[in-house]
Automatic annotation (TrEMBL):
Main location: membrane
Native organism: Actinocatenispora comari
CDD domains (UniProt xref): TM_PBP2 (cd06261)
Entry annotated with the keyword Zinc: no
Family: Belongs to the binding-protein-dependent transport system permease family.
Name of the protein in question: ABC transporter permease
Pfam families: BPD_transp_1, BPD_transp_1_N
Keywords of the record: Cell membrane, Membrane, Transmembrane, Transmembrane helix, Transport
Segments traversing the membrane: 12-31, 105-126, 138-165, 185-202, 240-266, 286-312
Membrane-topology descriptor: Multi-pass membrane protein
GO molecular function, one term: dipeptide transmembrane transporter activity
A cellular component annotation (GO) from this entry: plasma membrane
Subcellular location: Cell membrane
Length: 323
């Protein structure tokens, strides 16, 4: 991997994050109302012009949008994401508390969904057009069609009626405090997330597997007398790995920023709920910090996927050297 290639990727990542920062900043300021109205609610109508001006000055809202952006961006370069106007807590502390919850939830969902998706994708592709293929694809289509909030709500309702299960925001148990208690809280939302993820991985695996299975090297491998299991896993699945890795990487990046509904239903204090609270209270610092973190996660995941490409396919390494 050449230094020129790495420099280009790092520059592209930095440009992407800068673009995200600018867009989020502009969109937040374009929303009706402001932080003061969101914080005080109906009481904001009782403020005098002097009181409102004093509050805007206190929160730094009286400066021009350009000045506000460069103040925030300067703090970002120093590792300071600002302070939550709603709670008065530094945003880095809030994100530090919420990030492990979301990462654990995303990893657990991936651990459940990826093996299931790959296995059923291979089963469907082993007999294309057969009853097993249609059955697996039908289940996968159902998994893709069901919205997360429906699956989450039905799951909580069933757990409540069968086991008197009731999510509570004040009873979260971290992994360090109790492994079993944490697993009981995280398993059900991870299973909800795994439904759609497994279906996506299954469909990608099926398509990539069928494409690789029709290649000449597969017929050569079978002609050499290799066992069917070795042909399927060592030759077909290995060469079908790039599309699967791409989809898994994209879905993992999505999970880091797309667990809002599941975290809200199961009362998990993750990034999704933190972002939702920031939006509801128009807490600019929280929304900007969480959004930028999610964007950075996508960028890093894409870069990691690119590195895995180079391990799976030597042709990409030669292309990188020529570039």
């Amino acid at each position: 991997m050449s230094l020129r290639y790495l420099a280009g990727r790092v520059a592209g990542m930095a440009g992407t994050l800068l673009g995200v920062a600018v867009v989020v900043f502009v969109v937040l300021r374009a929303l009706p109302g402001d932080t003061i109205t969101a914080k005080l609610g109906t009481q904001a109508a009782t403020l005098t012009a002097e009181q409102r001006a004093a509050l805007r000055h206190f929160y730094g809202l009286d400066a021009s949008p350009v000045t506000q952006f460069f103040r925030w961006f300067g703090g970002l370069l120093r590792g300071d994401l600002g302070v939550s106007i709603d709670t008065g807590v530094p945003v880095t502390h809030l994100i530090g508390d919420a990030l492990p919850v979301t990462v654990e939830l995303a990893v657990l969902a991936m651990v459940i969904a990826v093996p299931i998706g790959v296995l059923f994708g291979m089963l469907a592709a082993s007999r294309p057009g057969g009853a097993r293929d249609f059955s697996v694809q039908g289940v996968g289509l159902l998994g893709l069609a069901l919205p997360e909030f429906v699956v989450a709500t039905v799951t909580v309702a069933w757990l409540a009626s069968a086991f008197a299960y009731s999510p509570s925001a004040g009873t979260y148990v971290s992994l360090g405090d109790s492994f079993s208690g944490n697993l009981r809280q995280m398993l059900y939302p991870a299973l909800v997330l795994a439904v759609g993820l497994a279906a996506t991985v299954m469909r990608t695996t099926r398509s990539a597997y069928l494409e690789a299975a029709g290649s000449d090297f597969v017929r050569t491998a079978r002609g050499k007398g290799l066992t069917e299991a070795r042909v399927r896993f060592r030759h077909i699945l290995h060469n079908a790995g790039i599309p699967i890795v791409t989809m898994v990487g994209i879905q993992f990046g999505y999970l880091l920023g797309g667990t809002l509904i599941v975290e809200q239903v199961f009362a998990l204090p993750g990034l999704g709920r933190l972002l939702l609270d920031g939006i509801l209270h128009q807490d600019y610092a929280i929304v900007q910090g969480v959004t930028l973190l999610v964007a950075a996660a996508f960028v890093v995941v894409n870069f990691a996927v690119d590195l895995v490409y180079r391990l799976l396919d030597p042709r990409t390494r030669s292309e990188g050297r020529r570039a």
